[in-house]
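question for whoever is on the cluster today: can someone run the full assembly for these? two chains, 491 residues total. i dont have access anymore since they changed the login thing
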Amino acid sequence: MFKKLIAESTGKSPWLFHINAGSCNGCDIELVSVLTPRYDAERLGFKLTGSPRHADIVVVTGPVTQQSLNRVLRSIEQVPDPKCIVTMGSCPQSGNVFRGSYSVAGPLSKYVHVDVDVAGCTPKPEAVIDGLYLATQILAEKRKEMKK
Amino acid sequence: MDMILNALKYLAYVLIFPGFLFCFLSGLLLCGIDRKLVARMQKRVGPPILQPFYDFFKLCGKETIVPAAANKFMFLMAPLLGLAALVVLQLFIPVFQFNIPAFTEVADVIVILYLLLIPAVSIILGGASTGSPYAGVGLSREMVTVLACELPLVLVLLSVGKVVGASYQGGICFSMTKIVEYQMSHGSLITHAGLIPAAIAFLLVIPGETGNHPFDAAEAETEICEGMLAEYSGAPLGVFKLNHGIKMLTMTSLFVMLFFGGLGSGIESLVALVGLTGTAAHMVSVLLAVLLLFLLCVIVTAVGISLVHAVTARLKIEQIFKYYWTVVSGLALLSLVLVWYGL
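^ ran it for u. tokens below:
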């Protein structure tokens, strides 16, 4: 019964940790707007946490600059399993307008496995919620695989 | 045979009611109701009421990372120490007249006061054992918050004790059972004019004791990564979240028993009116008393925790300390003076 409760709860209580990897702040503001009364992601259980140790879903914004690369990877490693990595905006996915710059080390998928990409510059809050919801389902599946 | 039955009975008290299982269910439920209420007050839809249960079970299924610098034993035992203290504490708080004499008669308000400190100490121990600088900042703030809350709390309990003690042998009465008994015959203490400032002071102490907004400088997640919990993950973190829920239940039920303890006096006659007798009547009246207590706890949470959370921003630590030692202590002291002169 206990195992069943855990399996059912895993997808229902996703806590977010947000990493800014050299973002222009546009996506960061849009992510916060998802938690405001207008879109209220908390109704799906989303909660912004302050520490990577509490997180289930890591949201990365920005093109992953040389400066931030190491810190991003270290923060992601600190997240306990099962975890999901979501990139927000076009920057961490492709580099966007910063592609080819000497200071950009991205895209993020070169370094870690990315579960969900939410494209856009910046993505609409509806798209962000959709992407995060997809991540919760992946999270529940990962939990099932972890048990095996 | 009798001894075994007795032992089983006490085991049931500790593990089921009013011990662990009751604390677990109603503590998390109270937490969920609080989150929903805050959301509705901010015009949000809010999480489902069962959200804290989802959070708890999810955390149980997560990997637990013990930092290399941490003292492993202390790191893992600290949340359990807090949980044990809170469950014991709940045993000492009577449910109107239906208390368990073996627990409520040996322990009085002083014991409750000491036990209330242990969850705070456990979170400080756990945080300190991780060696994280965020935990260092958090635990120094937690100590100040605890210190700030203690003075008004003691003053409130003194004034309540004075009122009840005056009608017994004189002096100050510290027995929780006697405080409730007094209210059964004299009406709830909230109707006592001199104690109204004390009741307001206690209501303001509740969010400080539980570490709720706006007195959560110690666990500020946006500035110091939830302070002492920064390094916790998985099941130990879940237990700390559970402790927070149970502490809300403990503080609100203590408030109800101190100031609204007389509301349960009609339950037995109400049950007798329906025509139940013997064991069945007792069972039904205990059930009604528990439901009434929980309902009152929800109301106190709504007024004392959720409303305060929804309308205020987080205070700085020195503001918290100043607020408690001037405004709240002032109210409690006013009450003590009024009560001392027989008002």
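summary bc i know u wont read the tokens: The mean pLDDT of chain B is 84. Residues 133-167 of chain B form the longest helix (35 residues).
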